[in-house]
Amino acid sequence: MTRAAVLPAVNAPLTIADIDVPEPGPGQVKVRLAAAGVCHSDLSLSNGTLKQPVPAVLGHEGAGTVTAVGEGVTAVSPGDRVVLNWAPSCGDCHFCGLAEPWLCANAGAAATAPYARLTADGSELYPGLGTAVFAEETVVSARAVLPLPDGVPLAEAALLGCAVLTGYGAVHHSAAVRPGESVAVFGVGGVGLSVLQSARIAGAGTIVAVDVSPAKEELARAAGATEFITASDETAKRIRQLTGGYGTDVAIECVGRADTIRTAWSATRRGGRTTVVGIGGKDQQVTFSALELFYFGRTLSGCVYGNSDPAKDLPVLAEHVRAGRLDLSAMVTERIGLDGIPGAFEAMLAGRGGRALVIL
């Protein structure tokens, strides 16, 4: 039996329950989780903003140790330390053929198939985003595990599976920040903290962090922010004042709200780049006039999983960790058990803290 945080239905409270996780079948891997990060996407899955079959075990940002492998698995072996990849590319679809694995048409297939059962009554459970890491153990496709390079602490490595890959990719792949450029980061949660660190690694000049909570200033500055602004109706104006009246070269939105996206766009200079990382609901509508689209010449782009190829980017991130350029522990503001996940959801809704890390 395995302890897990189970979502019985959309908008229902999580319950801690015993589940039965099967041994891995052909092409599968069983992982004993060391830790899991609590991501805003998990909250979005629980409240129905993102679709997920239920009952389900949520959690998609995790790391652990392989305990068993199924037939045909050769990339990893029992005892290997791994990071979970919640969006494994198939290698065969149209987007994979375009070398855009972050857009893989089949990446989410695992989330729609039951993977375990409740011990109490044998009812089937679905894996949140295909990984189900809010549990002591999980079984996933071999494509969903990435060998963790040496020199990276296993618990903190969980953050590499989503927040850091997303934040690093937003800076280095989507926005392609160049040395000396100015960057504004909207939202200082787990992903925002990763964006701030990645902007510093990229050699950005002025780095402006924006958040609704003034209590996050110290956290933001420790991650690399040179300026901090408490969000208000004057945010875009204040950012322009900090950048010679022009606006930042790059704005990266990590919140997923229409008003924040609009502010990020307005805070970007003419010809600048605005990258949207935050996942918002379909009711969040953003409007632009045809004239301003022409006049400002800005680029507005979405960013899925940091536009990353995790297999290629993970070794790069590990080297940044080993060299001390990327501090994973600084992003963690709370270490909790499985029963602390609901409280972590409440903290996210209230805009408190950085990343909560579930120690398993």
Question: Could you characterize what this model shows?
Answer:
It contains ten helices and 18 strands. With 360 residues, the chain is of the alpha/beta class. Helix 4 links the parallel strand 11 and strand 12. It is globular.
Task: Tell me the number of strands.
Answer: 18
Distance between the termini: 14 Å
- Characterize the largest beta sheet: strand count, sense, and whether it forms a barrel: 7 strands, mixed
Q: Based on CA inertia axes, which overall geometry fits?
A: globular
The helix/strand class is alpha/beta
H/E element order: EEEHEEEHEEEEHEHEHEHEHEHEHEHE
How much of the sequence lies in strands comes to: 25-35%
Number of helices: 10
Instruction: Give the C-alpha Rg.
Output: 20 Å
Q: Report the average pLDDT across residues.
A: 96
Task: Determine the fraction of residues in helical runs and give it as a percent range.
Answer: 25-40%
- Taking pLDDT < 50 over at least 5 consecutive residues as the criterion, the unreliable ranges are none
Quaternary structure classification? single chain
Would you kindly provide a brief summary of this structure?
With 360 residues, the chain is α/β, with parallel strands linked by helices. It has helices spanning 40-47, 94-97, 163-174, 190-201, 217-223, 235-242, 258-266, 290-296, 310-322, 341-350, and strands at 2-7, 15-20, 28-38, 56-57, 61-69, 81-84, 116-118, 124-127, 137-141, 145-147, 183-186, 207-211, 227-230, 248-253, 268-276, 299-302, 332-336, 355-359. The chain contains ten helices and 18 strands.
